[in-house]
Design a protein that fits this description.
The complex is a heterodimer of chains A (about 260) and B (about 350). Chain A has about 260 residues and is mostly helical. In chain A, helix 7 packs across helix 8 and helix 9 runs antiparallel to helix 12. The radius of gyration of chain A is 22 Å and the shape is globular. In chain B, helix 2 runs parallel beside helix 4 and helix 3 packs across helix 4. Chain B is elongated. Chain B contains eight helices and 19 strands. Classes of the chains: A mainly alpha (about 260), B alpha+beta (about 350).
Chain lengths: ~260, ~350
């Protein structure tokens, strides 16, 4: 009997989550009257504005990932190795983007960087910097979890005693063992940047978020198709994190073999 | 001049002194253990030799060279950690070859050396395994091979057996000693386990509260402890509170029974001193002339395998001693009155 109730709640939860998704999917397939078709998807994918917006957002995502990795990984590593007493401070700082709304952040950025000598608003660099702030909690937490899983200090010392310098320690010992954590942070950052609206719209960049917002106001079927596509993209990323994050240390060829 | 010299090493962290005026000379090929309770400064001293900590004052000299401020990766010191610290992303063979690869040795030479090391630790067939695929004992053997592979000038082991279970611990302990003797490598071994320190080492450094208490061969440390701390930390002791009768002669009294300790006691008649006896020094027969004797009553008998521990009572004082087990041993009965014997030189004075 207990089992029945558990299953009932699971079923209700599933209906709650999947029914709107199913409705959106079904609606996105009804562009052609009287039959199900992929016309809406075709329209979206062949729209040059979509392609432009997607490529722009993807580029921003790549830059954001690179800058975040360069900023966060060495910082988190150093905090773990030499300044463990700073961990709570770091955690507080990385939580700030959750507390400060994106709209506040972007207005602050515009006020601070829209006039010389710090005129950055015309440059996509400001957008990337803002995205780095947004992505910081996810990136830092992923890396932090990865570093907690390995004994950073002892591994570093073991490598040192064997004659290794800092580049060797970082690239041969630490990074390979953080691979799944780094990939996790990377995918999450990608997912955040690709769908971001507020900052991109406020800084007036032709990103995917604003494109989707405009499309949603003017069309019926295409936004539904876009929603499903972004959903698949996000879930695809999460699935990849899961597959890559399995096992200790990171991905190994024998573990990946089963995923092809 | 020793191969490794630690001259007046002191290490302070903020307002805490971890190591105070530590002096030691270690000969080439010698196996020296640092023994002491946790927090006594033994690991900090080892970490200073390795270069992971810098002494607040003092000098570290290896093979005539002052390395006090040299970076750890410039010291050519092999180190084995309690937590093994194998690189999880590398196979056993890659772990062992890591230091040689860093030193840019030719591939063929690395391969040869790795093979030699695997043979040394009897793990030839595990070359392609990852650390998570082998047991703790095997991981520590790989860690040892990795440290030795670079032909270090000095081998440092930081409680390498603490994370292993008892049987593997003894097995690996013997293996470490055998490898060390075969290669003749100068070794410093940190442990809080007295059995490990006594069984492995040429010399033992007993440490307590940031200071060196005594340095000596295991035999000396165990039989002739120079401080009350060494006496109580190394080995098991049975302690009696005895009244001083004649300090010059070393005559003492407990529950009305007189016996002799070492002469020239620094105490006044009537003082109470803590006198310790190793439980194995006591016997039921007078094996030599002029031994102390005491009349006691048996309280409990505990069978410990190779020895039988007998708990006895004088009038109010209690003590215990060990009898070596053998099948023909006549065990005393509980409540039985016995006379026990021990040499006068066996009494260790622990102080007031």
């Amino acid at each position: 009997m207990k089992r029945f109730w558990s299953w009932l709640w699971i079923a209700l939860g599933a209906v709650y989550f999947f029914l709107p998704l199913y409705a959106t999917l079904r609606f996105s397939l009804m562009m052609k009257k009287g039959e199900l078709s992929l016309l809406a998807y075709e329209k979206v994918l062949t729209d040059p504005a979509f392609v432009k917006a997607f490529v722009f957002s993807a580029e921003m995502a790549v830059f954001t990932i690179l800058v975040s990795l360069l900023l966060v990984v060495p910082t988190a590593y150093w905090v773990h190795l030499r300044l463990p007493q700073l961990k709570p401070v770091m955690e507080f700082i990385t939580m700030l983007p959750f507390v400060i709304p994106a709209i506040v952040l972007v207005f602050g950025l515009i006020r601070a960087y829209s006039k010389p000598p710090l005129l950055l608003t015309p440059s996509p660099a400001l957008l990337v910097m803002a995205y780095c702030v947004l992505a910081m909690p996810y990136m830092y937490r992923s890396v932090d979890v990865g570093l907690r899983a390995i004994d950073v200090r002892t591994l570093t010392e073991a490598a040192q005693s064997l004659g290794a310098g800092w580049p060797t320690i970082l690239f041969k010992v630490i990074f390979p063992n953080l691979r799944s954590a780094l990939l996790g942070g990377t995918f999450l950052t990608f997912a955040i940047v690709i769908g971001e609206l507020t900052i991109a719209a406020s800084l007036a960049w032709p990103a995917l978020g604003p494109y989707m917002a405009v499309l949603g106001q003017n069309r019926a079927y295409e936004p539904a198709a876009l929603a499903i596509m972004s959903f698949v993209l996000t879930w695809g990323s999460i699935l990849l994190i899961e597959l890559v994050g399995r096992g200790r240390g990171g991905l190994r060829s024998d573990q990946l073999a089963g995923t092809h | 001049m020793g191969f490794l010299e630690l001259n007046h090493i002191t290490k302070r962290f903020a307002n805490f002194t971890a190591v105070e005026n530590f002096n030691l000379e270690v000969e080439k090929g010698e196996f020296v253990s640092f023994l002491g309770p946790s927090g006594c400064g033994k690991t900090t001293t080892l970490r200073m030799i390795a270069g992971f900590e810098t002494p607040t004052s003092g000098k570290i000299i290896i093979n005539g060279e002052d390395v006090t401020y040299r970076a750890p990766n410039q010291r050519k010191i092999g180190m084995v950690f309690q937590s093994y610290a194998l690189f999880p992303n590398m196979t056993v063979a890659d772990n062992i070859g890591f230091g040689l690869k860093v030193a840019r040795k030719p591939t063929a030479e690395i391969k040869e050396r790795v093979k030699e090391m695997l043979l040394l630790i009897h793990m030839e067939e595990f070359a392609d395994r990852y650390p998570y695929q082998i047991s703790g004992g095997q991981q520590q053997r790989v860690a040892l091979a990795r440290a030795i592979a670079i032909r270090p000038t000095l081998l440092l082991l930081d409680e390498p057996l603490s994370a292993l279970d008892a049987k593997i611990r003894v097995e690996l302990r013997n293996e470490i000693r055998a490898i060390q003797q075969k290669l003749g490598i100068t070794t410093i071994y940190v442990t809080h386990d007295q059995e490990e320190a006594l069984s492995l080492s040429d010399r033992v450094v007993v440490m307590n509260k940031a200071r060196m208490e005594q340095v000596g061969a295991p035999f000396e440390i165990y039989n002739f402890p120079q401080t009350p701390f060494v006496a109580s930390f190394v080995g098991t002791l049975s302690i009696l509170n005895a009244e001083v009768v004649n300090p010059a002669q070393g005559l003492l009294k407990v529950d009305g029974q007189e016996f002799y300790g070492p002469g020239g006691l620094e105490a006044r008649p009537g003082d109470i001193l803590r006198i310790a006896l190793r439980p194995e020094i006591v016997s039921l027969k007078e094996t030599a002339a002029d031994m102390n004797r005491m009349n006691v009553q048996v309280q409990t008998i505990t069978f410990l395998g190779s020895v039988v521990r007998v708990q006895v009572k004088l009038e109010t004082s209690r003590m215990f001693f060990d009898l070596f087990n053998n099948p023909s041993l006549q065990l005393p009965r509980e409540g039985e009155n016995l006379t026990i014997y021990f040499p006068k030189s066996a009494c260790l004075v622990l102080g007031k």
